[in-house]
Amino acid sequence: MNWDDTGFLLSKIKYNENSLIAEIYTKEHGKISGIIFGGLSKKIKNYLQIGNQLFVNYNSKSENRIGYLKIEIFKAHSPVYFDQSKKLNCISSAMNLIKLLTAESQSNINIYDLIQEFYLILSADEWLKKYIFWELKLLSILGYNLDLDGLVNKKTFENKTLYFAESSKEKKIVPNFLIDKDIKVNDLTTLLDGLKLVGDFMDKSILKPNNINFPISRNQFINSLK
């Protein structure tokens, strides 16, 4: 099996003295993993940053054996944010979500396009608010749609609109911007509440039922915002 593609680096771990095992989300083949010989060499390791877009040549003797990857840089996204810790942590968190929530070797062009959209969000105004909606879109593409518009109740208190979701066990306040999407949000606490709500949904509906621990990288991202 031999093919060429482009993809985004999701993860990498040391394999031996000079090589790596990498996971890459590719355009035509979905999430794939393989060995990069010489991945720790000076020639290659500088552009093997999580989130970078790569040219990929994949070679494997059979579907049941791990493949081998030859890679070249396509676009170095991550180095742009080396001096912006919040956005760098956001890249790490987003790529780790793709890694955790997608299946091996199942192509989905919507996921690939969403990763490309992610980098447009990072350079935009209100990037954090837009990123929260990016996470919701990712979950929706994967079949886990959080239909907040259909779940919330609304009430007015002291001329302020409040939204909340209620069940027999709990009642959660829903930040207004998740419903009234055109609202500008300048308050970090409100945005953190939005991230927490999406994280709680993810943990309860996806991660725990599949025995997946809540990703450390997402907690690190949230902590970097505070």
Reported for the largest beta sheet, the result is: 5 strands, mixed, barrel
- How many structural units, i.e. domains? 2
How would you sum up the global shape? elongated
Write down the secondary-structure element order. EEEHEEHHHHEEEHH
Q: Give the count of helical stretches.
A: 7
Which percent range describes the beta-strand content? 25-35%
Span of the ends, CA to CA: 47 Å
Helix/strand-derived category reads: alpha+beta
Helix content: 25-40%
Which regions have little confidence, pLDDT < 50, spanning 5+ residues?
none
- Taking all residues together, what is the mean pLDDT? 93
Number of strands: 8
Indicate the topology.
Blueprint: E1 2-14, E2 20-26, E3 30-36, H1 42-45, E4 53-59, E5 67-75, H2 85-101, H3 109-122, H4 127-141, H5 148-151, E6 153-157, E7 160-166, E8 171-174, H6 188-207, H7 216-225
Parallel strand pairs: 3-5
Antiparallel strand pairs: 1-2, 1-4, 2-3, 4-5, 6-7, 7-8
Helix pairs in contact: 2-3, 2-7, 3-4, 4-6
What is the compact description of this entry?
It is built from seven helices and eight strands.
Textual characterization of the structure:
This protein is α+β, with helices and mostly antiparallel strands. The protein has two domains: 77 residues, Nucleic acid-binding proteins (OB fold (Dihydrolipoamide Acetyltransferase, E2P), Beta Barrel); 102 residues, no CATH class. Helices cover 37% and strands 26% of the residues. A five-stranded mixed barrel has the order 1-2-3-5-4. Strands 6-7-8 form a three-stranded antiparallel beta sheet. α3 packs antiparallel against α4. The longest helix is centred in the last third of the chain and has 20 residues. The radius of gyration is 19 Å and the shape is elongated. The termini are far apart. The mean pLDDT is 93.
